[in-house]
Write a structure and sequence with these properties.
CATH architecture of the largest domain: 3-Layer(aba) Sandwich
Number of domains: 2
Number of helices: 16
Number of strands: 18
Largest sheet: 6 strands, mixed
Strand content: 15-25%
CATH topology of the largest domain: Rossmann fold
CATH superfamily of the largest domain: P-loop containing nucleotide triphosphate hydrolases
Mean pLDDT: 83
CATH class of the largest domain: Alpha Beta
Strand order of the largest sheet: 5-6-7-3-8-9
């Protein structure tokens, strides 16, 4: 083990585990006058690497934001005993770096660039975007600094330096975000939902990167979110429920959540199935689809046909092209018009409006969440699904019967007026899931819809889909986890490409 900026090893047994670094004392806080965390007592000591877990909306992200000083203290206090000047915000900011992996699109923004949802796909067809080297230099990369070069080599980042950052895969993106956070050599590195969107091999690699930071650089780490596996370096665990600590101590394994008693979605079924769309035979047909970015071929000669009423799972490792396929269907990818694609019995490029396509599809994806940079109340986020835009249109004409029923089904009616950015990641994902259902479409296109949700909420979602989708409804579903896949799925499209670097 090495100290940051030092080549002298420190034996693990010599680390001062007893020295308190950050102390929460009876702290109650939130983003407004309403508390989210209540009477938190927690001490983080030298040499401790924590994971913060708990069900959806338990306060995990709020807790790491509180360490950063981004919440409103209502009572109690938090003390930074390792700082020379504990009250200095600037000193705290230099020693604590926070990265949320649920909004990588916004993290890639800079003062001179405005990113939007479709730009990720448009960018693959053009050059001139900021490179990884340029992005890291904005974060303080000094290629003359031996510590920086050691870290670059440790993470195998040299092959990525001249790539354009907007074109990176999910696994590559995490390495770059981790690198930029580390370049400031903080004492604490806080990582919120670092496993979101990663398949098993990519999660394993990412865990290895974190272990290397601890072993080689004596980096202190705090993770928050939902996890199926953890880095070996994690030695402490904090569990939250409804804003209160239920466990704090040595790392333990969470017990699997047993099946819970779920609400009867009967009224939702009636409202959802009451709407009838125009009859179609072929929802989708790919005829030798090929997607290429320069010399990089992402999809090669793919043939695929989806008939009305089909229920498909699309699976494959990171970099296999799953999200690219979704963007072709939903009309967001520029190469859709250079390929032979049939949607709703009509070949693309014959004068159809992109809005004619979208109005028949209920859609959600990680990219949509990443680039959603608005702070509408929760209800308005859902109601924007009626017009397939990011803003509510013709509000007076909307009768939110189905929306109200879905809010009640997920027990989130009390959150309707809460601004989007004040909600937990899991609740935000639930809103986008409801948004995909709210216009009762004949086709559901769900790309990693359950990211950030706890197991109980996933059960609610799958029960709902089982009840509302008839043999006439079409479902295309993407997930890295077979245990999340709805039981009504009976067809699989498997993509086979993986580049761990």
């Amino acid at each position: 083990m090495y100290q940051i900026g030092s080549k002298e090893p420190i034996h693990t047994s010599e680390v001062l585990y007893h020295y308190p670094m950050i102390i929460f004392e009876d702290l109650t806080c939130g983003y407004t006058a309403s508390p989210i965390l209540q009477r938190i007592n927690w001490t983080i000591k030298e040499g401790e690497h924590w994971v913060v877990t708990g069900p959806m909306a338990s306060g995990k992200t709020t807790l790491v934001n509180t360490i950063m000083g981004k919440t409103r203290k209502l009572s109690g206090c938090i003390r930074y005993t390792y700082l020379n000047n504990p009250s200095s915000y600037e000193e705290r900011k230099k020693t604590i770096h926070f990265v949320s992996f649920t909004d990588t699109g916004k993290l890639f923004d800079s003062v001179n660039a405005v990113h939007y949802y479709q730009q990720r796909y448009q960018a693959f067809d053009s050059d001139g975007h900021l490179t990884v080297r340029g992005y890291l230099k904005e974060g303080g990369l000094n290629e003359q600094d031996p510590d920086h070069l050691e870290f670059i080599d440790l993470m195998n980042l040299r092959p990525l330096l001249d790539m354009e950052r907007i074109k990176l895969s999910s696994g590559q993106t995490r390495k770059i975000l981790l690198c930029k956070a580390f370049l400031g050599q903080p004492k604490f590195l806080l990582l919120d939902n670092p496993h979101i969107g990663l398949d098993d091999p990519s999660r394993h690699l990412f865990n290895n990167y974190l272990d290397k930071l601890v072993i080689h650089f004596n980096q202190q780490i705090i993770l928050s979110g939902h996890f199926r596996s953890l880095p070996s370096c994690i030695n402490r665990q904090l569990m939250l429920k409804e804003g209160k600590i239920t466990y704090s101590g040595p790392r333990v394994y969470e017990k699997p959540i047993e099946k819970i008693k779920l609400k009867d979605p009967g009224k939702i079924v009636e409202q959802f199935q009451n709407k009838r769309d125009q009859n179609f035979s072929t929802i989708l047909k790919f005829d030798h689809i090929q997607i290429k970015y320069g010399k990089n071929e992402v999809i090669k000669s793919l043939n695929w046909e989806v008939k009305a009423g089909d229920k498909w799972l699309v699976e494959g490792p990171n970099g296999a092209g799953k999200s690219t396929i979704i963007s072709l269907i939903y009309g967001d990818h520029p190469q859709a018009y250079s390929n032979k694609i049939t949607l709703f019995d009509q070949k693309r490029g014959q004068g159809e409006s992109i809005w004619d396509i979208k109005k028949r599809i209920g859609f959600t994806s990680p990219e949509l969440h990443s680039y959603f940079n608005y702070n509408h109340p929760a209800e308005e986020v859902v109601l924007s699904g009626y017009s397939d835009t990011l803003f509510v249109q013709h509000r007076k004409e909307i009768k939110p019967i189905l929306s109200d029923l879905l809010f009640d089904y997920f027990d989130i009616t009390s959150y309707k007026k809460i601004p989007f950015k004040e909600l937990s990641t899991g609740l935000q994902r639930v809103l986008f899931f409801i948004r995909a259902l709210v216009k009762a479409p004949s086709v559901l296109l769900l790309d990693e819809p359950y990211q950030g949700m706890d197991q109980a909420t996933v059960q609610k979602c799958n029960l709902l889909l089982k009840n509302i989708l008839t043999p006439a409804h079409t479902l295309i579903f993407i997930s890295h986890f077979r245990d999340e896949v709805p039981g009504i799925i009976d067809k699989i499209l498997k993509l086979d490409h993986f580049d761990p670097k």
